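Quick log. Single chain, no ligands specified.
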Amino acid sequence: MKEVKILGSGCANCKATYKVVEEAAKAKGAEIVLEKVEDLGRIMGYGIMSTPGVVIDGQVVHAGGVPDRKTVEGWFSG
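-> predicted structure:
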């Protein structure tokens, strides 16, 4: 099971990223724990300067803008 965090202030792009990640994981049959992180201190702790950010199992895999569906599905393959 992967631990996925969506980092962002709750803006439209952050919400869209949350939805894309949720849908892509479901489509790939990946079991994830999805968490939304809006606390600026925690976001800065990951070194994210542009949101939304995506962290999987403690590693930043994306920062800035909404990731495309194909890229997100790739995070949950294999």
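DSSP finds three helices and four strands in the chain.
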